[in-house]
Amino acid sequence: MIPSITAFERSPDGGRGLARDMRVRWALEEVGQAYTMRLLSFKAMKEPEHLALQPFGQIPTYQEGDLALFESGAIVLHIAERHAGLLPHDMNARARAIAWIFAALTTVEPPIVEREMAIYFERSKSWYAERLPILEDRIRKRLGELSRRLGDADWLDGDFSAGDLQMISVLLRLKGTPLLEECPNLCAYVVRGETRPAYRRAFEAQLADFTAAAGR
Fold first, then answer.
1. 36, 1 in Cβ contact below 8 A?
2. Domain housing 173
3. Residue of 47, 93, 100, 192 with fewest CB within 10 Å of its CB?
4. Are 41 and 99 in contact (CB under 8 A)?
5. Using an 8 Å Cβ cutoff, are 62 and 69 in contact?
6. What is the CATH number of the domain that holds 158?
7. Is 183 found in the same domain as 206?
8. Is there a single domain that holds both residue 61 and residue 112?
C-alpha cells in the first residue's frame, strides 16, 4: 500500500523545504517508495479528523494501511527500518545511525528552533537584544562539537544514513547564517546532502505543492 503523508497547504517557510514533512519525503525518495500527499490548511490541522492522527495538531503524519504515525523522527525511523538504504546492515553501525537521528532531534535542533522562535516572536521585547547572543552561543557550542566529530568525513558514521538525513535537515534551518558558515565542514556536509538526487526530488515535489497552493 502506498503511504500517505500530510503537509502544510501553505508552508510558512515559503517553499524552502524546512517544514518537517520534507524529512519524510526525502526518506521515502531515498528508499524508492512512492507516496501521496494530503495538504492541510492551518484550520484543518486543528479539526478532529487530523487530531485523531496527530494529537498536537501538527504535521507531518504518515498513514499506511492500518498504521498511523506522527513525529517526523519516528516516521523516518520507521521508513529506514522497513526499507533498505537508510540504515546499515551491521547491528552496531545500525544502532549508531539511530543514535544520530536522536542527536539531531534532541541535542542539535532544540537551540536552533528556540533561536527561530525568539526572532519571530520576541523582537519587540526589551530583553531580546541580550537574549539572542545567549541563544546563538548555545548553537555555536553544539555546532562546534558536531564539526569536530564530523571532521573531514563525508558522513557522520560511514555511509549516508537516516542519521545524516535528519542532521542535515536540522542544519538546513541555519543555511546562509554566520552560525553555520563558521563551520566550513558543516556547510560542505549540508551541500552534500542537498545534492543527493533523492533530496532534489523531494525538494522539487514540496516546492511544486507550495507553488500550486499559493496560486489558488
1. no
2. 91-196
3. 47
4. no
5. yes
6. 1.20.1050.10
7. no
8. no
